[in-house]
Predict the structure.
Amino acid sequence: MEKLRLLNGQLLDLTMQRLCHQLAEKHEDFAHSVLVGMQPRGRYFADRIKARLDRITGINVPIGYLDITFYRDDFRRRNAPLQASETLLPFDVEEKHVVLIDDVLFTGRTIRAALSALGEYGRPASVELLVLIDRLYSRDLPIQPDYTGRTVNSILSQRVVVEWTEQGAAEDAIWLVTK
Amino acid sequence: MAALSVNHLLGIKGLTTEDIELIFNTADKFKEVLNRPIRKVPSLRDITIANIFFENSTRTRLSFELAEKRLSADVINFSASSSSVKKGETLLDTVNNILAMKVEMIVMRHASPGAPHFLSRHINAAIVNAGDGTHEHPTQALLDAYSIREKLGSVGGKKIAIIGDISHSRVALSNIFCLQKLGAEVMVCGPATLIPKHMASLGVKVVHDTRQALEWCDVANVLRIQLERQQGKNFPSLREYARYYGINGSLLQQVGRPITIMHPGPINRGIELTSDVADSAQSIILDQVENGVAIRMAVLYLLAQKIKVYGTVGKAA
């Protein structure tokens, strides 16, 4: 197994800084905008973005977490059992500009499910997608990010692994793993 | 491991503690779904479920039907009173006829203990026992334990008294299995004529004095006197039963400690519970009903997960 480091702590810091400035540029005071982290793994990244965005804008940017387990299109089609995480949306999404946040964009199926799940909470004014890593040439559906940390060329058998200190890792790091 | 160890929910006896915890954790997620503006998820949209009720039921059938619809399953209902059962068809024939219409899951209530176990050995569909005679009623026990967990934080170490007609009650037996698996202490209380002889062999305390039970317990699960199942005289009169085994406000006040009151419904008001107790802040009877839908969604979802699209029951992960 071969591990290639895509981003280390320092670069990650710069990347997140840029993403937050892009968000602030577009959404200004976040009066009608909300962040939604994708459960389970996008949550850590979303929390980081929110903390940094709060410092940049000086306001408490609203954040929620969305679990899409019950909206997956591979229910009864995969061998590994699915386990749901918590959904916590402490605001009304009706007429809001929603920024979905996930760590890795791969086939796009998770985001497809997220759009269905989000629709159950109301009709957002718009939905954007922010991802830390965009894996190119691997999409099953016509879904593309609006804000991207890094684009990565990878083949299907490779995996992108994101490690956060919040999860118990020694340091923040993003790896491309080849079997 | 986030999958059930069983392919059918026939009774609590066959479940592991991990199965019960998994059902509870999944029910937590569905409870959130039930409080959304749109209370529905698409998970079971390609599953058809038949609710087969050979015995009358209102809330269990409604609760199952609602759970199925909240999961987007297609639902067909069958009740014995309006069917060919009256014309002499066997259980296996009835069910096979329904399965021929391409049904993946069956929710069944039947008067004979073991009927769902029998079916599970002969047909190719996931079976959920919605009550088999005086044997088990697993989803009721699950929602009862889930409601205790919600009210008191956990089930382990708690003292639960089941009061009333134990011998005719499938709720009592399933509750005993479920609560013991989760580490609770269980006591049954009722007139000697309504408690089976070998109850103590299940590891439960047996008393015949309601006050003694209330002084011991954290939770009192009060069962209905099943008037339709009383053959012969098990107690002299309803009035006498209410006097010795009914729970009223002044009795609870004398105990002096807050006791959580549960009842699987339907309540015979003024017999096993007086209205001031049934409607008090200590009563979680309506929470039980609400939790019933979330628990049944969890059970159906977890069982459906084991029915692979191109496979059959049992080819699970």
Summary: Chain A has a mean pLDDT of 93. The first helix of chain A runs from residue 9 to 27. The interface with chain B takes residues 67, 69-71, 75-87, 116, 119-122 of chain A (CB under 8 Å). Chain A has one domain: 11-154.
